[in-house]
Structures are given as structure tokens and as C-alpha cells.
Amino acid sequence: MTDAFTAHIIHYVRHSMSDDAILALVKSQLGVKALSAPLAPVAKAKPGRKPGRKPGRKPGPKPAAKAAAPAGAAPVKRGPGCPKGSTNKPKPGRPKGKVGRPSGGLAETLNHVERIVKASHGVAASDVAKSAGIPQSRAATALKALKLAKRIYQGGDRRFARYAGDAKSAEQASLNARKNASGPQGRGKKK
Fold first, then answer.
1. For residues 92 and 84, what is the distance between their CA atoms, to the nearest angstrom?
2. Residues with Cβ < 8 Å from 51, sequence gap 6 or more?
3. Is residue 99 a part of any domain in this protein?
């Protein structure tokens, strides 16, 4: 349950703040420097209308014209996809073309992970990552994609999750992992 103060805040945000004001509040909490609107409450909207802009209200003032470039200065050229104000010169050391794509390719990674899983009789995600020589996060993503495509199967969950080429092997590997797991050790074991 929430207390009266919390309930009042929730009611205020839901019913008295415009979308822009809520967005500005969230941005300020996330540390975003440029706020799109001030944090000012808006009058309560009539039923059946969205809160925010009032009908018949004219849009705000148009942005000021850009300052003229100094005489003799060359115009700024921008390439496709470049942000405003940047030139089309590539940064040193950065390759041209698509940046951030994995060197091996997603399809190759998926095929490699699938071969590792199908060669075993149930393997953990960490073991797949070690065998494939890829980060554990990438291995987990590949395992999830293969599982959704029904190319591999998962038995168990969390730390006992095991992956195999068929559902029966995956479940059996998960059960074996549970049996062989060492639990918390008590001080005085009773026999």
C-alpha cells in the first residue's frame, strides 16, 4: 500500500502534468541536460480530451534564424547520417562504412554456438561461451535466438539451465546439474 503523500504525488503526475512536463521530469532524473519543457503543471483537461495542448492554441514562436557565416568562410558540408554541425570528415582511426557490426557475423556465431551445443549432451551457457571464445553475454544472446528458432532446446532454468540438440537431453542434463550441485553447508549436520 502507498501512503497518502505518495498517492497524492501519483494522482498529481497522472492527472495534472502534461506529457512534456512528465518527459522533462524523467529526463532530469536520468541526467539528460537538454530539457524539452519546463516543469510547470498544466490546467486539468476536460473529460474526453488528452491533457497537453489546448484546442485552438497556436504553436510557439519559430526558432531564430541561424547566424550568418563570416565572409569568406566555406559552407559546412555534411554527409548522410551526420549530425547537425558536423562535417563529413571521418574521425581518425574510425573505419568507413557500417560501424559496430561484429566481425564474425551473427549467422556465423549462431552456427558455431549451435554446433557446440549439438556436440554435447547438455551444456551450460558459460561453457558455450568458453568453447566458442566469445563473451558470455553474446553466447546468452545466441542461445536465446537459437532456442526461439527451435534449433536447440533448454532444460531447467537459471543456474541449472542446460542446452542440447533435443529437449530430453537438455532436461536430463539440468536434472544431473541439480543432483551434483553443492548447496549451503550447515554447521552441525545431522545424520
1. 19
2. 15, 17, 18, 19, 42, 44, 45
3. no
Q: Which domain holds residue 157?
A: 106-180
pLDDT in tens, 41-98: 555 555 555 555 556 656 666 655 555 555 655 555 555 555 565 555 555 665 554 4
Report whether pLDDT(101) > 50. Answer: no
Answer yes or no: is pLDDT of 167 > 70. yes
Chain segment 112-155, per-residue pLDDT in tens: 999 999 999 999 999 999 999 999 999 999 999 999 999 999 99
CB 107 within 8 A of CB 117: no
Residue 118 belongs to domain with CATH number = 1.10.10.10
Domain count, the chain: 2
Note whether 98 and 148 are within 8 A (CB): no
Burial label, 169 (beta-carbon count in 10 A; 0-12, 13-18, 19+): buried
Determine contact, residues 164/153, Cβ cutoff 8 Å.
yes
Alpha-carbon distance 45 to 55, whole Å?
11
